[in-house]
Amino acid sequence: MEYVSLGVIKDSFGLDGTIKIYSTTSNQSKRYKAGATVFLYNPQTNERKELKVIKYRQNGPFDFLKVEEINTPEEVKLLKGYEIHAIKDEISLEKGMYFYSDLKGCNVVDKDNNLLGIVKEVEEYPAQLTLRVARKGKGDFFVPFVKQFIKSVDIENKRILIEIIEGLL
After folding, report:
1. The CATH number of domain 3-90, selected from 1.10.260.40, 2.30.30.40, 2.40.30.60, 3.90.1150.10
2. How far is Cα 80 from Cα 78, in angstroms, rounded to an integer?
3. Phi/psi of residue 100, each to 5°?
4. What is the CATH number of domain 100-162?
5. What pTM does this model have?
6. How does pLDDT run across 116-157, given as a tens digit for each residue?
7. Which letter does DSSP use for residue 72 in this model?
């Protein structure tokens, strides 16, 4: 089974054990519907625990999630740095949308099919998503994930074709 990260636990909120999560996903209202199952993931031990969603709300880059299994701020504080996951197959994406985990590791090429680097990370900025691309022997470069730069994405073949403009590399 493959999982996708929805965010990282930052702190507790309130007195009822509500979890404050730095979001790394979109469509949270679908993923955090009351009654939905999500998973608490410990990146240190690679363990997952099933959680049942009671309620959800969003404020800026943060998601606030109340689950049945956690009921105090003290319980949440022990989980700082843990991730919230969902089963990847259960999440449907609209056309032109991608899982961050699918973009990571893709080869980034130019129009002449020259390998420019490999996607190291997908970073969120207020204006848009940005790909951090690692290059051999050089520093990373950044590509805004917008159609002016991203010409095609082929997840199956792990290939992203970009338009290069002056100053990008």
Report:
1. 2.40.30.60
2. 6
3. -55, -40
4. 2.30.30.240
5. 0.65
6. 999 999 887 777 889 999 998 899 999 999 999 999 999 999
7. S
